[in-house]
Amino acid sequence: METPAPAGREERVQAGLIDLLFRQSRAILLANFVIPWPVAYVLREAVPGQQLLAWIGAIYALTGARLLVSRSYFRRGAAAAGPLVWAHRFTLLSILSSLLWGVIGWIGFVPEQPHLIAFVCIVLTGMSGGAVPSLSAYPPAYAGLLIAMQLPFVLRCLQQEEAIYSVYLVFAACLLGVYLYYSLVTYRALRETVSLRFENLALVEGLERERDRATAADRAKTRFLAAASHDLRQPIHAAALFTASLATLARRGDVAAAAAKGIAGKLEAALASLDGLLHGLVDVSRLDAGLVPVSRRPIHLRRMLDDLGEEYAPQARERGIPLRLAASDAWIESDPILLKRILDNFLSNALRHAPAGRVLIGCRRRGDALEIQIVDTGPGIPAGQLQTVFEEFTQLDNPQRDREQGLGLGLAIVRRLGELLGHKVGLNSVPGRGSTFWVRVPVTATATTNPAPGPVLAPSATLCIMALDDDAQILDGLAILLAAWGHEVFAGQDVEELRRRHAVAGGPPIDLVIADYRLAGGMSGSEAIARLSGYLGHAVPALIVTGDTSPERLRELTATGRIVLHKPVAPERLRIAIREATGAGGVVSGAD
């Protein structure tokens, strides 16, 4: 359910002024009950009593109606009819009431008794001036009151020929001008006060939102670190046990090939789990840092969903889950790689959580967008947890943190990818009946361009590589792996050591530098690469390896323009990076 958009600043100020109009009019309403009696007392000898009583009764009746309107306003609120509607109701009743007060300027105008005329002037002047602070919040209301209250007296003055009445007219004109001026000044002051009040409220609301956001972020960070710490420790603990087992067997003598292969496989699985978690964390950091590039283009939806269905069909058959596709021939606009990653997460979740159900890949038109849906008939998700599943390390059906069921980062990445692409992502679910994950993508015109041909792969190559890391164990492991792949390797813990070893070997041409980002002595990998390029006399292709995943560091590394690898680096990812950096296509030399 969508909430209504907040009113604009001008509408809020106007509503505040109308509210002030109703609140400040209470003094006038009280005066309407009290002042008629002394006025009637003074006029009793010049005006018949019945007329005075009828006049008082009319004022009381109209004041009662104004009280009812005011009460209705405060009980129902301005939203019931809109601020301007209430302002118009108030103004109409105010003008009618002012006309009744103006009546005494007509019936109390007795030329034979100048003191009564002076008394009428005092009453009308006092009533007009007293209304300035009360009605200036809505200028039409005060202008209507002033004109209605003074008009009968002015008309009577115009009917007289004596010069004194011209003085009264001049006095009335000056009175109108002065009161309207002060009403305008008061209105501006009230408007500024109300505007400042709303600005202060907006600032307070903004501060409260920032406070709540900071509090939520702090809680999320604590939960995130706790879950990450647990999930990181598990594969490291398993790898340590497998390594200790292999070392124990080796100390007893030669290790049988089958035993070594079995332990190595389990060790690789533990490290693969660790690698998946760390790369998931890197993905989250890259998205938070805004370092994931977006390349939008038209996508034929049916072709994309057909490919997705074919990719996951074997997994669905293995699990015994019917996978059905209901695609559309529409064209949508998005980044195909990032959009597929969203759908991969949705579909893998559906297949994992609907072991005895069915899964449907479909789409629905939503205005000028298309909603791609992954529907499953699994156990469903309670309403109170629909948004929770998009948070990091949230796995509602995996409280024991079984790593084979994932790490709980997929949907958190989906949420960030949706924000990056500007696509709404969401979830509808009914416990016991299943869930529908969806992403809404804009529809576009049919694409007319053909995709660019892929790069031509060069033959595999043996390379001469410089490896630089101040950690001796990591450096040895990297050098051994590169040598096993058939490359010539010069390894060193600093630039000077690398230069010496390279010079001793006769200074062969270097094809690639692989450098850790944080080196001893405060030197960065970028600085080390620059020094080595200066030593070699030309710019050398390079890879930077880092274990830092902070958004600031990721931005800094991206700015170098070099390929960045995040520890732990899987061997296959290292092969691909070497090929990308050096232009050596195919599989870089060596085999597992």
TrEMBL record:
The keyword Protein biosynthesis does not apply. It comes from Bosea vestrisii. Residues 464-582 form the Response regulatory domain. CDD domains: HisKA, REC. It catalyses: ATP + protein L-histidine = ADP + protein N-phospho-L-histidine. This is histidine kinase. Residues 227-445 form the Histidine kinase domain. The modification 4-aspartylphosphate is found at residue 516. Keywords: ATP-binding, Kinase, Membrane, Nucleotide-binding, Phosphoprotein, Transferase, Transmembrane, Transmembrane helix, Two-component regulatory system. It is an enzyme of class 2 (transferase). The chain crosses the membrane at residues 27-43, 52-74, 86-109, 141-158, 165-182. One of its GO terms (molecular function) is ATP binding. Signal peptide: none annotated. Gene3D superfamilies: 1.10.287.130, 3.40.50.2300, Histidine kinase-like ATPase, C-terminal domain. Its EC number is 2.7.13.3.
